[in-house]
Amino acid sequence: MGRQSGFFDIDERLKELSAKGDDLERLNAIVDFEIFRPHLARAVPRSDGSKGGRPAFDHVLMFKVLILQAAHGLSDERAEYLIKDRLSFMRFLGLDLADAVPDANTIWTFRETLTRARIDGKPAIEVLFKAYEAELSKAGFLAMGGQIIDASIVAAPKPAARGGGHRARLQFAQWVLHVGCGTACGRWLRRVRD
């Protein structure tokens, strides 16, 4: 713990992860994510950069973030944190420690753009995830769908039974993206419970 990290320490850690069977490394090996680039470029147009601003994140990198979210049931905020925290996530996305990581708002915006965009009359996100599932199937794997959940605890005033005062009550607000057919398409619903 007291020694300074060396240049090769990260490479050694990644080798250890590989030796233990990093599923994301396997996924990168069996799926050619570049096949999604033309559809992604059509669905999420980018400016030419003449107006300045921060350079946009790569389309394929952002699609892979959505795959991580769907596979691990991650909210946008949690995905941002875990990309910064996990070497396996960084390697899957092609990021180094010093590289910028998409923030939660960027992830949300990218997903919303894919949800609104159309490819052959269908939501782009649906078409892309079905193509991803087809690639997995072709390689002999089964894509398992889940829910992308963004949960938070919020304080909400609750009227007291008698006396007219208010007591604070904690509610669990959960935003759930319903996922169908193993794809990350659907609609956001807000559920509030005590």
Characterise the protein shown here:
This protein has 194 residues and is an alpha+beta fold. The strands form two sheets. The chain has a three-stranded antiparallel beta sheet. A two-stranded antiparallel sheet has the order 1-2. The longest helix is centred in the last third of the chain and has 15 residues, at 124-138. The chain contains eight helices and five strands, in the order αααααααββαβββ. The protein has two domains: 10-138, no CATH class; 148-193. The protein has helices at 9-19, 23-30, 37-43, 59-72, 76-85, 87-93, 104-116, 124-138, and strands at 118-119, 122-123, 148-159, 166-177, 188-193. A hairpin with a 6-residue loop joins β3 (148-159) and β4 (166-177).
Quick summary of this structure?
The chain is of the alpha+beta class and 194 residues long.
